[in-house]
Amino acid sequence: MSIILPIKYHKSRIKPSTFIRGMFIFCFLGLVATPALVRADEWGCGNMTACLKKLEDKDPYIRRRAALDIRLYARRSKDDERKKVIAALKRHLQDIDKQVRYSAAGSIVDIDTTSKEVLPILFERLNDKTEDPIDAGLYLRHFGPEAKDAVPILIDGMKKEGISWFLGYPHSTYGDVLRDIGTPEALAAVEPLRRRELIADIFYAPFKLLLYPVFALLVSLCFAGLFWRGRAQYKEGKKIKYMPLLIPTLGWGSWGLYMVNKNVMEDYGSVLCFVSWFLFLITLAGLIPWLVSWVRVRTQEKRKTVNSIPS
What we know:
Blueprint: H1 16-38, H2 48-54, H3 60-74, H4 79-91, H5 98-111, H6 119-126, H7 133-140, H8 151-161, E1 164-166, E2 169-171, H9 173-181, H10 184-189, H11 191-208, H12 213-235, H13 246-260, H14 262-267, H15 269-308
Antiparallel strand pairs: 1-2
Helix pairs in contact: 2-3, 3-4, 3-5, 4-5, 5-6, 6-7, 7-9, 8-9, 12-13, 13-15
């Protein structure tokens, strides 16, 4: 037996609201995509020769983009080509557009940190109220005490920004720049940051030791003793939780993670800080139940002793 379902055919009609929305989206995408396609050739140079050509363009925007992009090719070039790029960028240290000057100076420092000609432009950028002083400071840090004129502005920036505690460790980009400049005034300004770093290092030191196999072995033996003692007391009816055995296990795991990703962790101290926090929290997670259980048993024993004394 077959069932034939009635099928009704409807003429497809586009609702006016759907048509209007479609036209609006089409027009919006056109307004965004058309300018982007028109300036598509300005997004990047493609090669060093094209960048050198665009450095001489009449449009300051194209010159600025070329000054930024050319550093990528110059780093991988031979010495002769690199010198040619630096010479071209130095000509634009006197460009009429300040953004071109700033971009040229920054690229020169990225390619060669010995070029002293960029210092006046970097100081100009540092004193430009429309620019973030740390951007110029990150370039000036390569010149050490020769960038001493930047110190007062960087100190003021550090005071305004404050010291952040990312993953529980103090950090200040201004402070790092002042350290690299290294003048007495700069080093005195970062003294509060140095003290906070010292406190953090002392706090994390015991947990960082868990990353090394010798100390992990000692910790494992210590907590193994607590495990067997707690197990024996548990058999006697004393409810001691022996969760701390979890700690050395995770400690060894953290050490293995550290060794596998050693290069990454050395490049990014925040990863090591994160592991230290992890070890700290699991230590508390293991010790607190054991200590609470131990105190509870001791309290019960004292009560039994008091009750057993004849009146």
